C-alpha cells in the first residue's frame, strides 16, 4: 500500500465529515428552535488515521483496492446525547434523511458487547461532490450518551496500551464500570423531566440577564446615560437577590425604553 496517494484517497472522507458535522449541527439548531429541546448534545467527527486504516485492513484481510468498501468507518461521526431515549430519536431522524442512504445499523445498547461497550452504530452511504465528480463513500455514525462515551474512550486507551490484550482484572473492572455507567444513564432517564426543567429555567434566566445587559448598553449608544444608569442600578439590585421574575419585568420595560429612544434618535 506504499504507492497510494493518501491525501487524495482521504480527501472525500474529510469532506464528508465536515459536511455531515454541519448538517447534523444544523439539525440540532432547528430542533432546538422548533421544540425548545434537542436530543443532540453535540457532534464531533474524524477521519481515521492512516496507521489505523492499515491495521484494520490487516485485521479484516481487506486488500488495497477494496479499502473503500471493506473499511466502513474511515469517516466517522459521533453524536452525543443526554439520555438513552434521545439516541433512538436521533437514529430515527437520520433514517428519514434523503441526503444519505442507510446501509445497516447495530444496536450495541440493547445488545451490548461482552466488554460492556454500549453505543448505537449506523453505517451510511454518503454522496460527495469532488473536483472529479460524484463519488459515494461509506461512513459510520455513532450515537452515545456522555456516560457511554466516557467509558468507550477509556476502553479505547487501555486497548491501545495493552495492544487489545487486556489483563483479565482490567477487563472485569471495565465491565463493572460499564454497568455503573449504564446505571447512571438509567437514573438520569428516571429524573429526565426535572433535569430538563432545570436546564430550561437556567437558560431562560441567562437569556433575560443577557437581554438586560445588552439593552443597557444600547441605551448608552442613544446617549440615554441617566436612564441606562437607573436600569443598571435596578439590574444589580434584582440580580443580587436572584429575583428573576423582577428581572423579566425589567427586561420588558427596558425593551420599551429602547424602542422609545430609538424613535427619538431617528425621528
Distance between the amino and carboxyl termini:
73 Å
For the CA atoms, what is the radius of gyration?
25 Å
Percentage beta strand: 15-25%
Order of helices and strands: HEHHEHEEEHHHHH
Task: Compute the number of strand runs.
Answer: 5
**Number of helical regions:** 9
Oligomer: single chain
- Major sheet characteristics: 5 strands, mixed
Low-confidence parts, pLDDT < 50 over ≥5 residues? none
Strand order across the largest sheet? 1-2-5-4-3
- Molecular shape: elongated
Provide the residue-averaged pLDDT: 92
Q: Structural class of the secondary elements?
A: alpha+beta
Helix share bin: 55-70%
Write the layout of secondary structure elements.
Blueprint: H1 6-35, E1 42-47, H2 50-60, H3 67-70, E2 75-81, H4 84-95, E3 101-107, E4 120-130, E5 133-145, H5 146-161, H6 168-190, H7 192-221, H8 225-240, H9 244-265
Parallel strand pairs: 2-5
Antiparallel strand pairs: 1-2, 3-4, 4-5
Helix pairs in contact: 5-6, 7-8, 7-9, 8-9
Written description of the protein model:
The chain is an alpha+beta fold. 61% of the residues lie in helices and 16% in strands. The protein has helices at residues 6-35, 50-60, 67-70, 84-95, 146-161, 168-190, 192-221, 225-240, 244-265, and strands spanning 42-47, 75-81, 101-107, 120-130, 133-145. The chain has a five-stranded mixed beta sheet. Strand 4 and strand 5 form a beta hairpin. Helix 5 runs antiparallel to helix 6 (168-190), helix 7 packs antiparallel against helix 8 and helix 7 runs parallel beside helix 9 (244-265). The mean pLDDT is 92.
Amino acid at each position: 500500500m506504499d504507492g497510494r496517494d493518501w491525501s487524495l484517497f482521504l480527501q472525500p472522507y474529510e469532506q464528508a465529515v465536515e459536511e455531515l458535522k454541519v448538517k447534523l449541527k444544523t439539525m440540532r439548531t432547528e430542533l432546538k428552535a422548533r421544540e425548545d429541546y434537542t436530543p443532540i448534545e453535540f457532534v464531533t467527527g474524524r477521519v481515521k488515521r492512516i496507521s489505523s486504516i492499515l491495521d484494520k485492513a490487516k485485521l479484516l484481510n481487506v486488500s488495497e483496492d477494496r479499502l473503500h468498501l471493506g473499511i466502513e468507518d474511515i469517516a466517522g461521526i459521533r453524536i452525543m446525547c443526554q439520555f438513552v431515549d434521545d439516541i433512538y430519536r436521533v437514529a430515527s431522524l437520520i433514517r428519514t434523511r434523503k441526503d444519505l442512504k442507510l446501509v445497516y445499523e447495530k444496536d450495541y445498547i440493547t445488545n451490548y458487547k461482552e466488554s460492556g461497550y454500549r453505543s448505537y452504530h449506523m453505517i451510511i452511504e454518503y454522496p460527495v461532490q469532488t473536483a472529479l465528480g460524484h463519488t459515494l463513500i461509506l461512513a459510520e455514525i455513532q450515537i452515545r450518551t456522555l456516560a457511554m462515551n466516557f467509558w468507550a474512550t477509556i476502553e479505547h486507551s487501555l486497548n491501545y496500551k495493552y495492544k487489545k490484550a487486556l489483563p483479565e482484572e482490567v477487563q472485569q473492572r471495565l465491565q463493572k464500570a460499564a454497568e455503573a455507567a449504564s446505571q447512571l444513564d438509567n437514573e438520569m432517564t428516571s429524573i429526565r423531566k426535572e433535569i430538563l426543567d432545570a436546564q430550561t429555567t437556567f437558560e431562560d434566566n441567562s437569556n433575560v440577564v443577557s437581554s438586560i445587559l445588552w439593552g443597557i448598553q444600547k441605551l448608552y449608544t442613544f446617549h440615554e446615560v441617566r436612564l441606562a444608569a437607573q436600569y443598571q442600578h435596578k439590574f444589580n439590585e434584582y440580580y443580587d437577590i436572584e429575583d428573576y421574575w423582577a428581572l423579566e419585568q425589567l427586561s420588558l420595560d427596558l425593551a420599551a425604553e429602547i424602542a422609545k429612544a430609538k424613535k427619538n434618535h431617528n425621528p
